[in-house]
Amino acid sequence: MTAAPDVVIVGAGAAGLAAARTLRAAGVSFRVLEASARTGGRAFTESESLGQPWDHGCHWLHDAEDNPFVGIAETLGFRFLKSDGRRNRRLHLGRRMADAGEQAASLRAVHEAFEAIAAAGEAGRDVPAAEVLAEHPSDPRWAGLVRQWVALMTAQDPETVSTLDYSRYRDTDHNWPVIDGYGALVRAAGADVPVTLSCPVRRIDWSGPGVRLETDAGTLAAKAAIVTVSTQVIADGQLGFFPALPPALAEAFAALPLGVAEKVALSFDRDVFGIAERTGLGVLDEDAPGRGPFQFQLLPGSRSAAIGHMAGEMGARLLKDGPDAMAAAALDALCAVFGEDVRRHVRGTHTTGWAQEPFIRGAYSCALPGQAEARAALFEPLAERIHFAGEAVHPYAFSTAHGAHLSGITAAERCIGALAA
After folding, report:
1. What pTM does this model have?
2. Does position 287 have pLDDT exceeding 80, yes or no?
3. What ranges make up the beta strands (E) of 208-318?
4. Fewer CB atoms near the end CB (10 Å): N or C, the chain?
5. How many Å apart are CA 47 and CA 45, to the nearest integer?
6. What sections of 277-400 are H helices per DSSP?
7. What pLDDT does residue 290 have?
8. d(Cα 280, Cα 268) in Å, to the nearest integer?
9. How many Å apart are CA 275 and CA 340, to the nearest integer?
10. Could you tell me if 319 and 355 are in contact, meaning their C-beta atoms sit under 8 angstroms apart?
11. CATH match for 7-39+190-257+367-420 among 3.30.1240.10, 3.40.1210.10, 3.50.50.60, 3.40.710.10
12. Residues 289, 144: contact at Cβ < 8 Å?
């Protein structure tokens, strides 16, 4: 490969692109190696499948008041809504829409469940979220909905969610959807960063004074590396290290697995929903509680569309069954609300498969019960020349694109300091 740069960045998602821009501003030479054929990582927008932009991965500007992508979006002219659509949220109970009292009760049950989980963590308890939910049981009517929202927020079922880790996430309740696509925004923010695509790094050799990165295109030497691949890729051994990672560090990666959070997009040849604004729709079938609830974003227009969300065990099961099963489950849920005639107007379907993406292997990180300190372990550099970044590394904005972005900046700044020492 080409002459050795000061730093090699592994991965061109939000973290890697932010790290590259930070290094360039400091005059530090770098090379970005991306395993896939595109930049953005878990931030990915495309328009072909629906005829309008939709995000396969991250979509909301979480913690909007402090999210740097808000300012970036304004600078680049990306449209977003300063509302998370809560006033346009509906719940269907299988045969009818919930009335105002039921709607309020369901929202209250979900809110109280998250409050109980966070309170347990804030009290220092690092236990499964399911344990806390059992201590604070909600109305049985909403139990499935509570479990689903825990899975959507963490990509894990409550049994495998650390209460202490969850409590450290900073949520301002301001989550703004990016109309033009969060994935497109992340890519545009890093569009001026040179990236070598389709170049997976197979192993990082840190046995000498610098680092040597072994790729399918050859070996590249550098003084330091910033590694932004997902925790699951490292835990599964897809990116190797020589010598092997210290046991405590390897255990930290394993303690922060990526769970399952997938989407199903359905487009229609006419307006099948009769809505004027983007609307959130929950479908909870009281007659078939084992089927699991669905959450949708309904997109209005003469050719309306729906984005269905599935996570945790339910998402994993449908993902294993394949795209047809995912689309069928989502369409069944929509037909329960809008009638069987909806089937005649389906123009196309598209499903995500983040857990099956070989260079990502999941949605976003969540600490296992008893393992909340794992994130802090990833923050520490390895031998002062390998720095880790990505959503899993951020102490309070984990699971988000802006957390990844901020972690990339921090890793680059620490790398610059180490090189200057």
Report:
1. 0.96
2. no
3. 211-215, 218-222, 224-227, 240-242, 261-268, 279-283, 294-299, 305-311
4. C
5. 7
6. 312-321, 323-338, 374-379
7. 55
8. 17
9. 18
10. yes
11. 3.50.50.60
12. yes
